[in-house]
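ARCHIVE CARD
Drawer: 12
Card no.: 0347
Subject: one protein chain, sequence and derived structure
Cross-reference: see card 0346
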Amino acid sequence: MTGVLTGSSLGAETEVVAKATRRQFTAAYKRRVLQEADRCEQPGEIGALLRREGLYSSHLTAWRAARPPRWATRPQVDWARRMGGSSVPR
């Protein structure tokens, strides 16, 4: 039989970690990734960045919300005004 694993070969390469630990990112790393993400202009560039770094889009969302305003490399866009609407709530 080909492709059949025996019980003795299963445990030889498997390592079980008692408790998973969360990854911790330094402020410098977050800043670098956010700056690189802000420079992305073509469709798919941010996805490629996230895959390369092993991150999720939720990381970017949380980091952008928490970053100090002086870290922003791209000016804030007033989307309502750009789309022809008013940015002032009525």
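Annotation on reverse: Residues 32 and 38 are 10 Å apart (CA to CA). The radius of gyration is 22 Å.
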